[in-house]
C-alpha cells in the first residue's frame, strides 16, 4: 500500500503575491514562509479571476474547495451545493482525518461535509481580529448559537444578536486559528493521515495586530509602489465599495504608507503564528511526512492605480502567493508557470 502524507493547508485573506521576503520583497519580514519556500516550490504566477461579488474571497474560496471555475459555482459561492464535491470531502471519503479552523465563507453545511472535526470556526467575511465570533464544531451542523450584545449602551438598551457560540476577547484571530491547528496536531499519532485546513482572517482589514509587530514597520520608511496614484483614471464600477473607502480621496502618500505598514505587520504576525504550527509538526515528528500548502485567496491594491481594494482585474488583485513543500515536492524551486487557484 502506498503511504499517504498528511496535508496542512494555510490560507490567508487578502494577501497579494508580492508580500513575501524570499520572493523579492525586502521590506517585509516573513521568515517562516521563507523557510517553506526554501523547503519546497513556489509558484510565482498563481492567479484567481476577478470576482463576481464585492467579497472576491467568497467565489475564490468556493473555486479552491470544489475545483470548479468561476461560472460553474452556485451563484457567487455563498453555498457549495451537495453535488459539488469539496477537497476536504474527497480526502475524508478516502480515509483522511479532516479538520478545519478559521474563516469559512461558503455555508455551514459544506463545512461539515468537508471536515469531520473543527474548532474556532468563523462563518463570515470579516471580523474584529481581537473579538472573533466563532463556533465550536457541531457534527449535526446545528450552528444556531447566538451571543447578545448591547452595542449602543450609551443611548439604547437594544440588544443585537451575533451568530456565534463564543468569543475569546483579546485573542487575535491569527493566534486563535493557529492554536486550534496546533491542538489538532498534538492529537495525531501518525497512524491515520490527516488534512488540516487553517484559514486565517488576516491580513484582511481591520488591520490590527500586537504592538510589537506594528513597531517593526515605520510608515515613513515604506516605499510607495511605482504605480501609486491619487485616484483611478476612470470609473471601474466599484470605486465606492467599502474597500475603496478605507482611505480618503484623493489618496495621500502618508495615509497609503500607513496602510502598507499595517498590512506588512499583519503578515509578519501571521507568519509568526504559522511558524508555531510548523514547530508543532516537527515536535510530533510529523513534519517530514506532511505536505504544506500556503496560499492566499485574493490580492489587494493598497494604493496601486489609485485603488485600495481587490475588485479589479489588475495583477495586484488577482495574483496570489502559492507555495508547496513536503515529501515528493522539489526543494528550493520557483516556477513562473501560470497557475489557477483550483483544486482539480
Task: Report on the architecture of this protein.
The strands form two sheets. Strands 1, 2, 3, 4, 7, 8, 9, 10 and 11 form a nine-stranded mixed beta sheet that branches. A two-stranded antiparallel ribbon has the order 5-6. Helix 5 runs parallel beside helix 7. The longest helix is centred in the last third of the chain and has 31 residues, at 253-283. Strand 3 (97-103), helix 4 and strand 4 (117-122) form a beta-alpha-beta unit. The chain is of the alpha/beta class. It has eight helices and eleven strands. Helices cover 25% and strands 18% of the residues.
Give a quick precis of the structure:
With 344 residues, the protein is an alpha/beta fold. The chain has helices at 31-39, 57-66, 87-93, 108-114, 173-186, 211-214, 253-283, 315-318, and strands at residues 6-12, 40-47, 97-103, 117-122, 146-149, 160-163, 194-199, 290-296, 319-320, 322-325, 333-340.
